[in-house]
Write a structure and sequence with these properties.
By secondary structure, the protein is an alpha+beta fold. The chain is built from 2 helices and 6 strands; from the N terminus they run αβββαβββ. Helices cover 12% and strands 23% of the residues. A 4-stranded antiparallel β-sheet has the order 3-4-5-6, with no helix packed on it. A two-stranded antiparallel ribbon has the order 1-2.
């Protein structure tokens, strides 16, 4: 890469340009007008769906958003209890701590400590699960919105 940059700098100093074929191992130099490098227009294929393209090329996804690929740790908060450090240190096995939330109240689904939805705690195949009951206003990040 350094050699390529040095070659471009040298070519510009002597009033010449190197063509795009240099990346393929071919180098052609021609004199520039007035000592300035010249720009050339290149033809690129259309990127719009339905345009003619080479067979075997992957289609361009209209409905894809890279933000949808980001992973986040979702946590479920069933309630809180306020106790002193002394009470916690004195806690015994099988002791029950009463939480501030009733059985009929929804649980909070949080990401980074912020509530992003609410739901009902249920069981599925021997595992805890959450049935989502409240969602915030859409942020416009879903496909088609």
């Amino acid at each position: 890469m350094t050699q390529a940059l040095e070659g471009i700098a040298t070519d510009n100093r002597i009033g010449a340009t190197t063509t795009a074929s240099e990346g393929r191992g071919e180098t052609r130099t021609r004199a520039a007008v007035g000592g300035m490098p010249t720009a050339q227009i290149i033809a690129l294929p259309d990127l719009h769906p339905g345009s003619e393209g080479n067979a075997g090329e992957a289609p361009i996804l209209k409905e894809w958003n890279p933000l949808h690929q980001i992973k986040a740790r979702l946590q479920v908060c069933v309630g809180e209890a306020t106790i002193s450090v002394g009470e916690l240190l004195g806690a015994k096995e099988n002791q029950v701590l009463r939480l501030d939330r009733g059985l009929d109240q929804p649980v909070d689904l949080t990401i980074e400590g912020k509530v992003v939805a609410r739901g009902q705690l249920v069981a599925v195949d021997g595992h805890f699960a959450v049935r989502i009951t409240e969602l915030p206003v859409s942020l416009g990040l879903t496909p088609g919105s």
